[in-house]
Amino acid sequence: MTTIETPQASPTTDAEKQALLSVRDLGVSFRTEGGEARAVDGVSFDLFPGEVLGIVGESGSGKSVTSLAIMRLIPDPPGKIVSGQIMYGGEDIVQKSYPDMRDVRGNKIAMIFQEPMTALNPVFTVGMQVMETILTHEKVSKSEARDRAVEMLEKVGIPEARKRLKDYPHQFSGGMRQRVMIALALVCHPNILIADEPTTALDVTTQAQILELMLDLKSQKEDSSIILITHDLAVVAETCQRVIVMYGGKIQEVGTVEQIFTDPKHPYTKGLLASLPSTSEAKQKRLYTIPGNVPALHEMPEGCKFCTRCSEVVDRCHSEEPPVHQLDSGQLVRCHLFEEEK
Amino acid sequence: MTAYFIRRLLLMIPTFLGVTMIAFMITRFLPGGPLEQELMRFRMAQAESGGGGSSMTQAGGELPQEALDELKKAFDLDKPAPVAYKNWLTRMIFDLDMGNSYKTREKVWDAISARFPISIFFGLTGFVLAYGVSVPLGIAKAIRHSSRFDFISSALVFIGYSIPGWAMGALLLVFFASGQHLDWFPLGGFESNSYDDLPSIVKKWEDIDDVSDDFGSFDREKMSLVSKVVDRIQYSVLPVFCYMIGSFATLTVLMKNSLMDNVGQDYVRTAFAKGLSPRRVIFYHALRNSLIPIATGLGHALSVIMAGSYLIEKVFNIKGIGLLGFNAIVGYDYPLVMGILSINIMLMLFGNILSDFLYALIDPRVRFE
User: Fold this and answer.
1) DSSP code at position A322
2) The complex's ipTM?
3) Has residue B241 got a pLDDT over 60?
4) Contact B275 A170 (CB under 8 A)
């Protein structure tokens, strides 16, 4: 199990490389009518310079909350970061004061969202919204900011960018709006781009273009990284180097794209992959689905979060939360099945 | 867009014609109209002059045919209703003449326009105050949602909303003007009878002795302006408050909900993710959007020209448009009824178009085709 060549394969095989962002034991809770709900529990991972890290999972797995926590955008109330650290540039984002946090947002870490239709303010021009990011973080004149905005909009592939500065979001198509979102996120050259389901709301051809654009822009800035949050495994396969699989607010498996796709360990990851439509198999075969649904946060089982739906479940899964096992390959798996392999 | 507004303006014509035509026809066919009233007056006069003599009553009560025809002619009742409507309409449009009041013989336009200062005063003050208080209050409530301030102000707002203005007026008069509890405000009216002779009234009101002697003739003029303002405020506090409370609640809640709606929108999260300050996110990004439904109501500011609630005016004994209109209706004073109706319709139609125009102006997504 030592066939990994990519340097970013896992945190341990490349310990000498400094992580750009390290999340340690992150916990996020939401106060709900049914009591406190742990949306994210004990999540730890590193993001290395230059890599594209995918976080996959079903709805409610905690992947979006994790990304919002990095930006400190958890709506409070009802949400709250209850534990852990998010280390960036030697400082803990969780402990940062609000003004310090403003300096991070949009400037060092930027984020784009799922819904390009609603993520832009409908009553302000696109130009103003891109310029606003620049003027917030840099001491430049308005005309300079305007030039920068035009340059950025051209970079993301908006034709006649200077003319379109005065247009409002509703005058753009969904794909174009997502390009504008990318422009306003990247215009201050952040180190990290968090993309929360950036292509989910777009049609397939536009999806490919947007992903390509993101990767292209990443390659233009050295050592910048992307955290790509998605439920679409095809997107992960095309773009990411490393993948985190989340379920029930916890990380279930971490590995390189090759490992996850060719040699998945966790029953949940296997289930996800089995659910993908395949061209090689007989057409009449029904598509596999993981039985059951993601339980509501306050109904999560005692032991392993996945035990209610797992095909390889054993007795202890119901009572005992499995620890994370590190395999020889560098893969991390949270499952009792791998205890002996250690 | 221009085409849209031209079309809207042109559409006003049939609307106006339709409304006035229906109202005009109703006035023609309702019993108790001007002719009946004249006859009644004639009979009563006869009965009085007859001194109760039984021989006269039988012969009396009938107006000579010529006189009747003359009366019919005077009221345009000798012509078929459509012709009479056409006459009324052409007179109004081409001669700007809406006829004379049956009751006072006064020109309808004069009777109405004489009330404009009162309407505009109350309408505009109420309007400005309602917006001036509701918008900031709504914003404050949205920002401090679920706080004690929010709950208490909500309670007050809803109490205000559930009490009709005139009922509130009666209550206020009892507590603040009757002298039984407090005597802060006059019992009613629009201004002191001696408004033009102020500041003598100030003496009466506040027991200031020899105001004019103390200040001399030069200061008297100044004082007079100040006391006029004081006088006007004293008379208007209570009625303006009554005018406000209704729209006040609606506006406050609309503003609050609108802002809260917008704060929950995705673009607000984007704005925070850009690193903007909360002040800028809320007061620039979210507020700008949440003012859209508020601002579109501004078109109806036009209606302040004819503002006036009969009941509030009755409670405070203000001779405004509301009272005029009410008396016109109960007194079958049709030219006056039609005059008030026509002006109201015009203001409403223009107000609607103005609202649409404002909507298109502030919301870039709105494009009228």
Assistant:
1) P
2) 0.86
3) yes
4) no
Condensed to tens digits (0 to 9), the pLDDT of residues B32-61 reads: 777 787 778 778 877 776 654 444 444 455
Give B134→chain A minimum CA distance, Å: 23
- Tens of pLDDT, residues A217-275: 888 888 889 999 998 888 898 889 999 999 988 899 999 999 888 888 888 888 888 88
Interface of A with B in 181-240 (CB under 8 A): 181, 184-185
Which CATH architecture group holds B116-188+238-319? Answer: Orthogonal Bundle (1.10)
Closest chain A residue to B291, measured at CA: A123
Contacts of A110 in chain B (CB under 8 A): 273
Domain regions of chain B by residue span: 1-30+75-114+321-369, 116-188+238-319
Mutate which of B145, B147, B261, B274 to test chain A, going by most A C-beta atoms within 10 A?
B274
The C-alpha atoms of residue A310 and residue A300 are separated, in whole angstroms, by 14
Which of A123, A200, A227 would best serve as a mutation to test chain B binding (most B beta carbons within 10 A)? Answer: A123
Backbone angles phi, psi at A81, to 5 degrees: -80, 115
Tell me the shortest Cα–Cα distance from B251 to chain A, in angstroms: 22
Judge: B269–A106 Cβ closer than 8 Å, yes or no: no
pTM here is 0.77
**A52 — pLDDT class (breaks 50, 70, 90):** very high
Report which DSSP code applies to A328: T
Q: How many helices (H) and strands (E) does chain A have?
A: 11, 12
Half-sphere exposure of A145 (CA within 13 A, CB side): 19
**Would you call B275 and A106 a contact, using CB atoms and an 8 Å cutoff?**
yes
Q: What is the mean pLDDT of chain B?
A: 80
Please report where in the chains the tokens 């302006």 appear, as a residue. Answer: B225
